[in-house]
């Protein structure tokens, strides 16, 4: 896919030498900026503009303060009241549907269009359920929190022995095989490499980083994943 | 494009629900009178089963036959007020039900009056909800409507919903309840996923139209396209360009192949160009095509032979409307040249093409009436449009970069050019970073047919870029010179004077959209006192307060809704309005994360209702009483 960058670098060069009273910041800092094929020409007069005009458009310095930020964010005022109010991002302005903004921003990026941009949403499917759901992994702090949420989501969900006992069992090769041979449901996930792993193998933070999607399998079907889990047990102990 | 078309037709037939209420009252009172006058009929019970004598029955039958020909809502509403028998006949013969605000009337009331409806259109949330100004889960649920209709309208054929919250269960119920169901159009809706679509595809055997327009659809990973019946379908229109996940292409191809009546097909951005090719060669009868991604295929990188896209398009002799181009590879543009001469509608609003690239296409488009573009085409591109598209009726120029900035790719130059070249213009939506009064005045004089004028100067409070004056005179000229104007959206630096002009000259204005404008309460007062046709008023971040709100009491019953957010209203004033106007539902809405400062109103949303306050209001909504 063609990606043609605008003359961002040139623009930022000008800004460094500009005299202005607004908040420091740049218009093109974040990669969420829509890529343009055409940079607009900067006239000489602009570079010495003192930017006293209140219609100057300096965004706040916070790089996350952009159109993708939480829609509930209100107008941010600069922390220094002596400066004129910067034109920070305002909710719902300009009146362009977020649908339209998202599509434009996503062109040129990888096809992760299904996932919203804040939060760590992954799809969760359960064998036998008619359709899948999504969870935001960032909402949870431990595996137990996640299991509880999944249990609520799929009402006929039975995960068997959950909690620290399960994790201890994972450490024990023999008990692991027992668990997997039961007909209870076992949570599995697909990691960044595309491998299917048993949930609970790795520390929570690492799991959140690497998990791309979840699948709640029947225990028997998860047997095939056991060898990898068993390997990890051996490596750990 | 479809959205705009329906919007216009919706706005034309400004149904006055107060008229309908009056009709209800008239009906029951005349019934009572008749009952008493007619000997032997017993004491007036006001029941609907009153049997009139034979001669009247004949007249009513004749009337029903005549009224069948009345299609316009406004005409039907007027007819229903003539007398009780006209009211009854009209109610029996109304087959298309339009509910402009889902909370203005309860499903029960609508259904008990109109018993033979085949087609229902319902609108829910106010437009500012599109821009994240309305907290989530505010309402506008389709559920009570579909539940009531499932019992009352088993012959229902068409459902059109805009800004409604629709669940999968709703769609399942719909698919199970209406064996003759033919058309489902969901515009700016949310709350459902592919499971719901699967139910509709699988069970609605007569389905002709399935259009998802700018709706948020969940990917439940149910292959809904595979759920259509395996035999030939009746599909005429399949629109899913808003879906943000892949669809099963084999199922899609097979579906297109067995849908000989298919005329409108709008693909989403996950359909590749080579897949598009395969579909187009199977469906040369298409009149409306959304091209999907239109991106460079893998063959390009590999240097392989590519299919003859131009021939495929050329075979589509009936193509009049082209859209899509979600990730456009401009080298493919020549493929559409063969269809340009017949195009009446072109949507490039997702295509970040430059002026040259646009010119290469637009030079062929002499019949173009509707054009949506990104401002990446610059003033130069707009000049090319003005030079070629003499028949242009509707233009929308969207910003590629929605940040406030001092300069942008389009400006007053482009607007001036369009006004000079496209004299038949009726509707314009124009985003820009800078504008002048002169250009706006020019448009008001050059384009007398303007019905919709929406100018969005992205930089808030920005004055005339040349004179430094407020934009008052420009908008004043629009309302003064464009005598057919019904919809207006203002922006830039505006004083109360601008609103004075609007109130003075905007006598036909039905929809007014205001943001970051005005000086004092007088601004809003001018509008409320002067704009006699005003039905929809949406205002944000403007210094209008309690006194201004009070000045509209005489008019609020004539309106569909009033939205005021981040203005200077107090809860007390809102309560006074609620007490003065018992049929007005006055909602004070807190944005979910907002501080609950008790003496300012974050959002006021008020609307007339025949059935009092709704019972599904979430906790952050306070209904004043």
Write up what this structure looks like.
The complex is a heterodimer of chains A (237) and B (625). By secondary structure, chain A is of the alpha+beta class. Chain A contains eight helices and five strands, in the order H-H-H-E-E-H-H-H-E-E-H-E-H. Chain A has a five-stranded mixed sheet with strand order 2-1-5-3-4. In chain A, helix 6 runs antiparallel to helix 8. Chain A is elongated. Chain B is of the alpha/beta class. Helices cover 35% and strands 16% of the residues of chain B. Chain B has a 21-stranded mixed sheet. The relative contact order of chain B is 0.06. The N terminus of chain B is likely disordered. The interface between A and B is large, with 49 and 62 residues.
How is this fold's topology laid out?
The complex is a heterodimer of chains A (237) and B (625).
Chain A: H1 8-17, H2 44-47, H3 98-106, E1 121-126, E2 133-136, H4 143-153, H5 164-171, H6 173-181, E3 185-190, E4 196-198, H7 204-210, E5 213-218, H8 226-236
Parallel strand pairs in A: 1-5
Antiparallel strand pairs in A: 1-2, 3-4, 3-5
Helix pairs in contact in A: 6-8
Chain B: H1 2-12, H2 17-37, H3 54-67, H4 73-80, H5 84-93, E1 96-99, H6 107-113, E2 119-123, H7 143-152, E3 158-162, H8 168-177, E4 183-187, E5 192-193, H9 194-203, E6 209-213, E7 217-218, E8 237-239, H10 249-257, E9 264-267, H11 273-282, E10 288-291, H12 298-302, H13 309-314, E11 321-323, H14 337-340, E12 345-347, H15 355-362, E13 370-374, H16 378-388, E14 394-398, H17 412-421, E15 427-432, H18 437-446, E16 452-457, H19 472-481, E17 487-489, H20 496-505, E18 511-515, H21 521-530, E19 536-540, H22 546-550, E20 561-565, H23 571-580, E21 584-589, E22 603-608, E23 621-624
Parallel strand pairs in B: 1-2, 2-3, 3-4, 4-6, 5-7, 6-8, 8-9, 9-10, 10-11, 11-12, 12-13, 13-14, 14-15, 15-16, 16-17, 17-18, 18-19, 19-20
Antiparallel strand pairs in B: 20-22, 21-22, 21-23
Helix pairs in contact in B: 3-5, 4-5, 7-8, 8-9, 10-11, 15-16, 16-17, 17-18, 18-19, 19-20, 20-21
């Amino acid at each position: 896919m063609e990606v043609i960058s605008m003359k961002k670098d040139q623009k930022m060069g000008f800004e460094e030498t500009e005299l202005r009273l607004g908040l420091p910041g740049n218009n093109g800092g974040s990669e969420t900026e829509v890529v343009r094929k055409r940079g607009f020409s900067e006239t000489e007069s602009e570079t010495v503009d003192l930017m006293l005009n209140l219609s100057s458009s300096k965004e706040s310095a916070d790089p996350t303060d952009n159109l993708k930020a939480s829609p509930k964010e209100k107008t941010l005022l600069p922390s220094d009241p002596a400066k004129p109010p910067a034109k920070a991002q305002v909710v719902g302005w300009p009146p362009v549907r977020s649908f339209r903004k998202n599509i434009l921003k996503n062109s040129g990026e990888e096809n992760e269009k299904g996932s919203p941009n804040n939060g760590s949403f992954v799809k969760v499917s359960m064998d036998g359920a008619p359709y899948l759901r999504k969870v935001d992994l960032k909402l949870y702090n431990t595996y137990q929190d996640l299991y509880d949420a999944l249990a609520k989501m799929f009402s006929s969900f039975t995960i068997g022995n959950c909690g620290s006992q399960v994790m201890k069992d994972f450490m024990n090769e023999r008990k692991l095989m027992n668990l997997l041979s039961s007909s209870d449901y076992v949570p599995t996930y697909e990691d960044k490499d595309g491998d299917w792993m048993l949930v609970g193998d790795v520390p929570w933070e690492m799991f959140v980083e690497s998990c791309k999607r979840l699948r709640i399998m029947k225990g028997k079907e998860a047997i095939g994943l056991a060898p990898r889990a068993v390997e990890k047990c051996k490596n750990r102990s | 494009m479809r959205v705009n078309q329906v919007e216009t037709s919706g706005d034309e037939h400004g149904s006055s629900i107060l008229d309908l209420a009056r009709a209800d009252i008239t009906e029951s009172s005349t019934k009572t009178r008749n009952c008493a006058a007619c000997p032997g009929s017993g004491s007036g019970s006001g029941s609907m089963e009153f049997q009139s004598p034979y001669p009247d029955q004949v007249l009513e039958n004749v009337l029903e036959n005549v009224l069948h020909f009345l299609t316009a809502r406004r005409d039907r509403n007027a007819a229903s007020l003539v007398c009780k028998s006209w009211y009854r006949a009209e109610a029996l013969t109304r087959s298309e039900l339009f509910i402009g605000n889902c909370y203005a009337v309860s499903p029960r009331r609508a259904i008990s009056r109109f018993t033979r409806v085949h087609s229902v259109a319902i609108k829910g949330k106010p437009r500012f909800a599109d821009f994240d100004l309305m907290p989530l889960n505010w309402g506008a649920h389709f559920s009570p409507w579909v539940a009531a209709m499932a019992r009352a309208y088993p012959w229902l054929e068409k459902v059109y919903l805009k800004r409604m919250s629709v669940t999968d269960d709703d769609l399942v119920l719909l698919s199970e309840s209406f064996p003759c169901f033919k058309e489902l159009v969901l515009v700016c809706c949310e709350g459902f996923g592919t499971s719901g679509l699967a139910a509709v595809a699988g069970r609605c055997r007569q389905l002709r139209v399935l259009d998802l327009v700018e709706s948020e659809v969940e990917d439940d990973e149910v292959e809904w396209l595979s759920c259509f019946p395996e035999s030939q379908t009746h599909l005429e229109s399949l629109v899913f360009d808003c879906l943000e996940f892949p669809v099963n292409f084999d199922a899609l191809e097979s579906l297109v192949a067995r849908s000989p009546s298919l005329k409108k097909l709008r693909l989403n951005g996950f359909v590749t160009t080579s897949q598009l090719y395969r579909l187009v060669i199977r469906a040369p009868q298409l009149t409306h095509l959304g091209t999907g991604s239109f991106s460079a295929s893998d063959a390009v990188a590999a240097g392989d032979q590519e299919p003859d896209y131009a021939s495929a398009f050329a075979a589509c002799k009936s193509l009049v409307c082209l859209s899509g181009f979600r990730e456009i590879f401009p080298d493919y543009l020549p493929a559409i040249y063969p269809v340009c001469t017949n195009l009446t509608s072109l949507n490039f609003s997702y295509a970040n093409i430059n002026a040259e690239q646009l010119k290469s296409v637009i030079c062929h488009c002499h019949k173009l009436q509707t054009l949506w573009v990104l401002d990446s085409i610059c003033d130069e591109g707009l000049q090319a449009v003005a030079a070629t598209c003499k028949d242009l009726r509707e233009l929308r120029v969207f910003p590629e970069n929605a940040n406030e900035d001092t300069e942008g790719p389009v400006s007053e130059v482009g607007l001036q050019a369009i006004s000079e070249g496209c004299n038949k213009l009726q509707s314009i939506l124009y985003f820009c970073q800078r504008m002048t009064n002169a250009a706006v005045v020019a448009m008001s004089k050059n384009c007398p047919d303007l019905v919709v004028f929406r100018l969005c100067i992205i930089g808030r409070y920005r004055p005339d870029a040349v004179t430094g004056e407020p934009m008052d005179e420009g908008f004043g000229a629009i309302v003064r010179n464009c005598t057919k104007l019904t919809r207006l959206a203002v922006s830039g630096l505006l004083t109360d004077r601008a609103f004075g002009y609007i109130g003075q000259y905007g006598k036909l204005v039905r929809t007014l959209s205001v943001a970051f404008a005005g000086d004092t309460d007088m601004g809003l007062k001018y509008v409320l006192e002067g704009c006699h046709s005003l039905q929809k008023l949406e205002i944000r971040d403007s210094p209008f307060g309690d006194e201004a709100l009070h000045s509209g009491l005489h008019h609020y019953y004539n309106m569909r809704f009033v939205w005021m957010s981040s203005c200077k209203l107090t809860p007390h004033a809102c309560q006074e309005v609620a007490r003065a106007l018992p049929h007005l539902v006055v909602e004070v809405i807190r944005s979910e994360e907002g501080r609950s400062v008790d003496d300012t109103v974050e959002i006021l949303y008020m609307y007339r209702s025949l059935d009092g306050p709704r019972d599904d209001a979430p906790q952050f909504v306070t209904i004043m009483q």
